[in-house]
Amino acid sequence: MRVGVLALQGDVREHVSMLASLGVAAPLVQQPGQLDGLDGLIMPGGESTAIAHLLETSGLREPLAERLAQGLAVLGTCAGLILLSTTVTDGRSDQWSYAALDVAVRRNGYGRQRASFETELDVVGVGRVPGVFIRAPRVESTGQNVQVLAEHDHGDGPCPVLVRQGAVWGASFHPELTGDSRIHRLFVDSI
């Protein structure tokens, strides 16, 4: 199995290490041809507008859109979730997304950098896992075909933090920044 890691900006090395710990080949994706032969792709956390810009300048924006339309399995964490979402609020006026996951997200929905936090999350089919939230997007709504796999109550009611719609997954948090590989295993096993 080959699960590529979008390697334009962000938590690339951490995702590669997590996949390697599961025995999964994790080639870096920086050019359109590197999408060929992949069974899945991870779109890492980082800065969503920077990654969007680099997707355009690298020539990856349209080829990745085509692969998403063909059913490529994708896990987007933090900025990756933003790029996969249908609606993004509090973004720049020129911000775009793939609209591959029927969710509305708010950039930095849990606060700026100083409001980052860690917590335990109950994940369907997995149990309790650590969740690292860094300038995390907040899922404000989900479409009817979106499965909520984990929620977090930040004091104002439960909010989805791990969602799935078919082959497309999104996490508000950073599972790659923990020693726990179960979120990655859940994604890989779904492919």
Q: Would you mind describing this structure in some detail?
A:
This protein is α/β, with parallel strands linked by helices and 191 residues long. The protein has a single domain, classed as 3-Layer(aba) Sandwich (Rossmann fold), CATH 3.40.50. 23% of the residues lie in helices and 34% in strands. It has helices at 12-21, 48-57, 61-69, 79-84, 182-190, and strands at 3-6, 28-29, 40-43, 73-77, 85-89, 101-106, 117-123, 127-133, 138-142, 147-153, 158-165, 168-171. β1, α1 (12-21) and β2 (28-29) form a beta-alpha-beta unit. The mean pLDDT is 94.
Quote the distance from N terminus to C terminus. Answer: 9 Å
Task: Note the run of SSEs as H and E.
Answer: EHEEHHEHEEEEEEEEH
Main β-sheet: number of strands, strand sense, barrel status?
7 strands, mixed
Which CATH architecture would you pick?
3-Layer(aba) Sandwich
